[in-house]
Amino acid sequence: MKKIIVPLDFSEQSEYALKVAASLAKKHGSEILALHMLELNQAMISSSEGFHPEQTVFLIKLAEKRFNKFLDKPYLKGIQLTPIIKHFKVFSEVNEVAKEHNAELIVMGSHGTDGLKEIFVGSNAERVVRNADIPVLVIKKEIKDFKVDRFVFASDFKEENLLAFQKAKAFADMLSADLDMVYVNTPGDSFLSTADTYERINQFLAKANVGIEVSIYNDYSVERGILNYSENSGADAIGIPTHGRKGLSHFFMGSIGEDIANHSDLPVVTFKI
Predict the structure, then answer these.
(1) How buried is 155 (Cβ within 10 angstroms: 0-12 exposed, 13-18 middle, 19+ buried)?
(2) 237-256, pLDDT tens digit by residue?
(3) Residue 128: CB partners within 8 Å, gap ≥ 6?
(4) Which residues of the chain does CATH 3.40.50.620 include?
(5) Pick from 134, 118, 239: which is nearest to 126 by CA?
(6) Sequence-distant (≥ 6) Cβ neighbours of residue 262 within 8 angstroms
(7) Burial (CB count within 10 angstroms: exposed 0-12, middle 13-18, buried 19+), residue 65
(8) CA dihedral 11, 43, 90, 1 (to 10 degrees)
(9) What's the burial of 263, exposed, middle or buried (CB within 10 Å: 0-12/13-18/19+)?
(10) What is the pTM of this model?
(11) Are 217 and 225 in contact (CB under 8 A)?
(12) What is the pLDDT of residues 193-229, one digit of tens each?
């Protein structure tokens, strides 16, 4: 893993992400791309009425000074660190920066959201997850030494998840973590018998050309099942595929991957299908 992107907004949560990225960078010799989105819209930058260019430059320089101070941390010593400041707060742009620099992982801090705010606004981490083509590691709490011994990967074991599974397995191998695979069976239209569930799982594993034991966990919803299974099994992190749905499709159908990233206290890694 050569390059890790960490979006930073000077919040406590973004520093949690920075510490985790630093831990990974030291273990794998990675470069950290520290990304700050400066909230200046186009009207403020280009308008000649009521807002002067020198004021824009002043705000940019002020942000750069604050950014450099924020990055002056003892735990970053010895790590190759590249600060990047973008002048628009557009979270889909994180993926563009990742492509430009050939980054392999985004580490993002999040406080999560709930209720109507989640439906109509969502969290910044959720937006990054929705737009990112590379894996996104979402961090909610401070972790002094990021180490994953047990990595739960949840899937419905449909063929479309093969690529996400391969990325998750590579991530677990990189961390020297045990990969714990789980299928959550729920009541209703999506219910499968034990025989049908194992048939789907075995077909998936045959196509993936791996021999891994998979647990079947029963719960009232996929989201609750993943969270409950991970807690009960002593997981250190959760991996999950995400479609990255947008627009009306996202509003009406949602994404279990985004919901897990939003609501889990454990670190969550999303892998784009």
Answers:
(1) buried
(2) 999 988 765 544 333 334 67
(3) 7, 91, 94, 95, 106, 108, 136
(4) 1-146, 148-273
(5) 118
(6) 110, 112, 113, 118, 122, 123, 125, 126
(7) exposed
(8) -80
(9) middle
(10) 0.86
(11) yes
(12) 999 999 999 999 999 999 999 999 999 999 999 999 9
Position 74, amino acid: P
- How far apart are alpha carbons 19 and 6 in whole angstroms? 10
Q: Which of 194, 189, 255, 196 is CA-nearest to residue 226?
A: 255
Nearest Cα neighbor of 82 from 37, 19, 38, 31 is 31
* d(C-alpha 169, C-alpha 250), whole Å: 27
Report the DSSP beta bridge partners of residue 136: 106, 270
CATH topology of domain 1-146: Rossmann fold (3.40.50)
The CATH architecture to which 148-273 belongs is 3-Layer(aba) Sandwich (3.40)
